[in-house]
Design a protein that fits this description.
- With 67 residues, this protein is mainly α.
- It has a domain of 42 residues.
- It has three helices and no strands.
């Protein structure tokens, strides 16, 4: 027995998202296409190696000056 179960409860945010998906069925496809633009790109191993080599070691106390 679940004392805190609320089977019929749905938050306002969940209802908004459900309505948005219902009114715009192409939304998920558009989201996937947008994600492809920036995130789902093939990694360039050579570029990552160059980034790693270009890192500068951080001082123990960052705010200390050389004076």
């Amino acid at each position: 027995m679940f004392f805190f179960r609320r089977p019929d409860y749905q938050s306002e945010t969940s209802r908004f998202i459900d309505d948005l998906k219902k009114n715009n069925p192409e939304l998920e496809k558009q989201q996937r296409q947008g994600r492809l633009l920036l995130w789902d790109q093939p990694m360039n191993a050579q570029l990552w190696d160059e980034f790693a080599k270009a890192k500068v070691a951080q001082k123990a106390y960052v705010y200390q000056t050389n004076a």
